[in-house]
Design brief:
This protein is mainly beta. The protein has one domain (2-64): 4'-phosphopantetheinyl transferase domain (Ribosomal Protein L22, Chain A, Alpha-Beta Complex), CATH 3.90.470. It is 12% helix and 36% strand. It is built from one helix and four strands, in the order ββαββ. A two-stranded antiparallel sheet has the order 1-2. It has a two-stranded antiparallel sheet with strand order 3-4.
Length: 72
Amino acid sequence: MKSLGVGIGGARFTDIEVTGGSGSAPGVRLTGRARSLAEAKGVDEISLSMTHDAGLAVATAVAYRRCSCAAS
């Protein structure tokens, strides 16, 4: 939710789904209020990194807008 510019309560946790499976990169599917927030901010991509070890799990999400700029 922080990557969408809101804290806890800005959207439902159930509006943010982690996709992918064993052997594939994790992804994010947004619905409801989370999707509305992303669209309002122009977010069209969310990169997600996840790791775990010895009972500890960590995830980092970065929301961004892909640039359609021509390289100069």
